[in-house]
Design goal:
about 160 residues; about 60% helix; elongated; mainly alpha; two-stranded antiparallel ribbon
Amino acid sequence: MNRPVLKLPRTKSEWGWDILGLVVFIGSIIFLVVSWSSIPEQVPGHYNAAGEVDRWGSKYELFILPIIGVFLWFMMQIFERFPHIHNYPARINESNAAAFYLTSRKLLNVTKNICLVFFGVILIQSIRVALGWADTLGIWFLPVFLIATIAPSIFALIKFRRIQ
């Protein structure tokens, strides 16, 4: 498996997704820090499929999502830099490698940033529920999350099939 190592410049969409993901994620962490003294000792620890709180936990559990988010961002950032190590169909060759690499890298980029946005939304909403400003994560959350995380993979698979 000797694939070419290509240096492909980042696209405007990749920059845009990175900005969106980081702004929402960092904004949620800032909201956590600013709200910390007002947050009660018990906060939502888990939500059911309807977006209702089904477990309460310590307010220190609010740090779990930012920690996972930073780890996810770091790892996916590394994988974005090395698209030649991703898994591709056997038909990849010198002439189509750039198209495969770019599609794969964009899929990782979108997925990474959608996850960061959703982690930020969950963190903000958990703080809001703990403070009594909201009651649930929202019935819309799970369907929107599933569509937002599955749709990019479907679009990428369609693009992969069109690469000659």
